[in-house]
């Protein structure tokens, strides 16, 4: 069963915590073969921002800027496998990401894709409509995100 995070301003900003976390404390120490240990995908809409967090071990959560969310999605095998695929997909196009100290949320109609690497945070900002185009260099990353969200939604609703 997935944990639904209720809407409450009293709860910690879990999205901000992932940016400040040492991956080794999560059991994700550098292994020399990869640079990316996690991905944060922020999608801005009229009602706020939804942030999907996927880590290299399959850990998956979804947070909203209004305080709600889903924690523990990675306990479901298919969600975890697709989150790992998303992380590896970002690794494959890491040269498209720029290093940044900015951690702010995007404004509508933008998305921000954050690569959490062992040497710092990198980010790409784009219009969602651009990422949906098959010829965009990050189109496969967008498709991977959509796959994780679809499966996470299905699991949350009691699907397989």
Layout of SSEs?
Elements: E1 3-5, H1 14-20, E2 36-45, E3 48-55, E4 60-64, E5 69-71, H2 77-92, E6 98-99, E7 110-117, E8 120-127, H3 128-131, H4 139-156
Antiparallel strand pairs: 1-5, 2-3, 2-7, 3-4, 4-5, 6-8, 7-8
Helix pairs in contact: 2-4
List the defining traits of the structure above.
160 residues; alpha+beta; eight-stranded antiparallel sheet; 29% strand; globular
The count of β-strands is 8
**Unreliable residue runs:** 1-11
Distance between the termini: 12 Å
In round numbers, the mean pLDDT is 88
Q: Could you say which structural class the secondary elements and strand pairing correspond to? A: alpha+beta
Short structural summary:
The protein is of the alpha+beta class and 160 residues long. Helix content is 28%, strand content 29%.
What can you see in these coordinates?
The chain is of the alpha+beta class and 160 residues long. The protein has one domain (33-156). The protein contains 4 helices and 8 strands. The protein has helices at 14-20, 77-92, 128-131, 139-156; strands spanning 3-5, 36-45, 48-55, 60-64, 69-71, 98-99, 110-117, 120-127. The protein has an 8-stranded antiparallel beta sheet with strand order 1-5-4-3-2-7-8-6, sandwiched between helices. The radius of gyration is 15 Å and the shape is globular. The chain starts with a strand and ends with a helix. Residues 1-11 have low confidence and may be disordered.
């Amino acid at each position: 069963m997935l944990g639904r995070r209720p809407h409450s301003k009293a709860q910690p900003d879990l999205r901000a915590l992932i940016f400040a976390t040492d991956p080794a404390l999560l059991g994700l120490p550098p292994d020399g073969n990869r640079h990316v240990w996690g991905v944060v995908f922020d999608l801005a809409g009229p009602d706020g921002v939804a942030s999907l967090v996927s880590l290299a071990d399959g850990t998956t959560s979804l947070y909203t800027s209004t305080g709600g969310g889903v924690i523990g999605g990675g306990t479901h095998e298919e969600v975890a496998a697709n989150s790992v695929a998303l992380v590896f997909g970002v690794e494959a196009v890491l040269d498209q990401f720029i290093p940044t100290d900015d951690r702010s949320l995007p404004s509508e109609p933008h998305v921000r894709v954050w690569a959490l690497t062992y040497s710092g945070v990198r980010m790409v900002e784009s219009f969602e409509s651009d990422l949906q185009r098959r010829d965009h260099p990050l189109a496969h990353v967008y498709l991977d995100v959509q796959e994780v969200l679809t499966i996470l939604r299905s699991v949350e609703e009691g699907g397989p």
